[in-house]
């Protein structure tokens, strides 16, 4: 390494050119080692920074629950396949009838098994008057509470095109909301005085005051993810916590510890079951129509988006000749939430119980929930399934041309999906070596490995194809969770890569194209116009400035309603209209978009999105349907 330095510097030796001029110093071994080490650390740091962010980031947009920052969303990265060896990762214990293997230990899924994505359970919907302005209180209008799966007479009379809340949504057995099985009992003899336990917080004790240790224990018993409760007799705080260890140990004991605590056994078996398609005698082929399926973990941030999405669905499903005839929210959550009686929902137990409150990758439960749903009778309502996310908006009914024949599907092109990703290739080949014969794919080694550049949403495929793809999707999700280097290399995109690998494995070809050639979705303001799309995705958080760089308007879902971590249900409000087109105003977008110039067509696409959004908000009551008071809805949302 040569550096230009003053004459007096030591211990470096000056070298001379042939002309005799003093030129550059020659470094000794120690300085060279130090400089090389610094350069290496800088390269490693840059590589890590590049690998841990993503262009559309994007997963916040896809799966809503990741709560990525705006900066993370707008920061792109380039990722190439790693040469690290992947180790065998096990599967989540799955049983599509709803049973769980003991302690959900990893196991290999059979090729015929199917997995499911996040979906919520639906209780009966109660008709309320819809306010055309900001949304009414609506609580007093939702007095009735029918069992989930019943059909609201008024809603059914208003729309005879499809059954909004069919019996297929209803869980089997039990009259309790969600069909939840009773929790463990609270025996005072098991209470531990003067002891405190740590764990992942399920319910904040400062917001959960209880009069006694018994009532605190009972509160924990009602929540599937709760294993530990700690109660303070002085402050009455009742903290509910999750702990995946078999035998949690106290962190503090003795007379000086005020807390009384208890540890409940882990829950076994599903909290809810549904009628299965395999048990239907002499099933008839479903009608040729489109069943929209939305997945969610049920957090408050996703739920305000779900309410708006479903309203836009209802509007455009009512268009004459619409192929949209069914809607199901798949909720992967341990308990019902506040939308059970407003949005048609089926709930499935998550593998990660702590995701009911917070976890780092709730998306990992989506594929299993979708696979489980695909085995229920609810999946028999239409020939095709349209998978969507909470932050999509319908702007028209899709063309019947998207209903492709078996073996073909339509996906949305995501340019950041690398078709020859080396990490996913190793996971895929490892699986195929073990199961290719079961799939009837003995010739797979002769095929070029090329993943479709898409994800599960938005995508439209035949329901029979979904029943083949979904279980392998969940299988590949499980296999990308371990080892750690694979999980980190694929990052938030591993759920998308897992879906793509499953589609490739079973031979379901996805036709993908970007806007404006895609018939599925546009993303304002990244796209110039809507093209043939029927969905809009409000993930990019557009900001509009004038020619002097003064901000005129902004809408970002991450700050809507006060931000991502507000208490549900959110107070929905209309978004101010974007500025009118003025060619002399020099309208432009934020720096992220290059060039920044805002065209008239892009502005009109933003306006269409906001108009549909605001129209939906105007139809929604302050209190989700089925609840008498806001406090009641908040309790369900907790």
Question: How many E strands?
Answer: 22
Main β-sheet: number of strands, strand sense, barrel status? 7 strands, mixed
Q: What Rg, in angstroms, do the CA atoms define?
A: 27 Å
Ranges where pLDDT stays below 50 over 5 or more residues in a row are 1-24, 50-160, 174-180
- Helical coverage, percent range: 10-25%
End-to-end C-alpha gap: 61 Å
> Helix/strand-derived class?
alpha+beta
- Give the overall form: globular
Helix tally equals 13
* Overall pLDDT metric: 80
Share of β-strand residues: 5-15%
**Biggest sheet strand line-up:** 12-11-10-13-16-15-17
Assembly context of the chains: single chain
The gist of it:
It is built from 13 helices and 22 strands.
Summarize the structure in words.
With about 650 residues, the chain is α+β, with helices and mostly antiparallel strands. Helix content is about 25%, strand content about 15%. It contains 13 helices and 22 strands. It has helices at about 30-50, 60-65, 70-75, 155-160, 215-220, 300-315, 365-375, 420-440, 465-480, 485-490, 495-505, 600-620, 630-635, and strands at about 15, 20-25, 190-195, 195, 200-205, 230, 240, 250-255, 260-265, 290-295, 325-330, 345-350, 385-390, 390-395, 410, 460, 510-515, 520, 535, 545, 550-555, 590. The strands form six sheets. Strands 12-11-10-13-16-15-17 form a seven-stranded mixed β-sheet, sandwiched between helices. It has a five-stranded antiparallel β-sheet with strand order 3-9-6-7-5, covered by helices on one side. Helix 6 packs across helix 12 (about 600-620) and helix 9 (about 465-480) packs across helix 11 (about 495-505).
